[in-house]
């Protein structure tokens, strides 16, 4: 560690009202290991700065082989769900004395792999990744090198490390049970990114629900190619302008897709829920503010971030008590509002 004069440490301890050992641990970069709060660290650093004690973070990181930085890669920073996840991760990291280096993979495996290389070059202590979810090789290689890593939300096939995800199948089953219970049979599934694990699980729940209810599966009603607003808008325009029998309900597998669907329905002068019912995956603050309020499937964002960071910190600061389950699956909740109505014969 850096050589700080003992008298200086004692004076800092007196100034901050902390013990000499706590002050020393903060200045030497061991705050996280001893679970020293962010507020305490800030107090020590401010007092140290006032006394002219400067801590060189980069040099200290090289000495201790730690940068007190966690890398976070998400697939779309403009998606409110991932933005909320990133905010929670940053909050939890800061509480443990870590800063966060954020990268947006733009739903591209190539960009994601490049972001992983960047994080390694910046010597981050560990990685939390909400992956695109199509390939696992670049992530699995980190596991082979024993690099601290946790995946959130999507888990590509072939990845064997710690991960935390919502129960995507359960979520769509809840939504389908709700729609079918209201008499709907011709239900559109506006999917996200085909091939990604979250999308596959959600589509599986949709198909399972139709089969369980004895309803026919129409593959033409599963439409979409990503989680963008344009996907929802274009898919609804295509379906409702065709000569095929109109769907009476829509299940959007992402909040931005749902926004696009709403835009298209309004342009087509179709009323929700009187003419078309709608449910969206992912709860957002605006869902209860629109007219009608949107029925949603809520993922436990805070719990996802907390469990992911817990798994990461167990790797950064290993103890004898290793996690019993490296893969955690958290339940999804249906929030019923005003965008679903019983099917009437006029539809």
From TrEMBL:
GO terms for molecular function: DNA-binding transcription factor activity; transcription cis-regulatory region binding. The keyword Hydrolase does not apply. Residues 9-64 form the HTH lacI-type domain. It comes from the Bacteria. The keyword Kinase does not apply. Keywords: DNA-binding, Repressor, Transcription, Transcription regulation. SUPFAM superfamilies: lambda repressor-like DNA-binding domains (SSF47413), Periplasmic binding protein-like I (SSF53822). Gene3D superfamilies: 3.40.50.2300, lambda repressor-like DNA-binding domains (1.10.260.40). This is LacI family transcriptional regulator. It comes from Prosthecobacter dejongeii. The lineage of its organism: Bacteria, Pseudomonadati, Verrucomicrobiota, Verrucomicrobiia, Verrucomicrobiales.
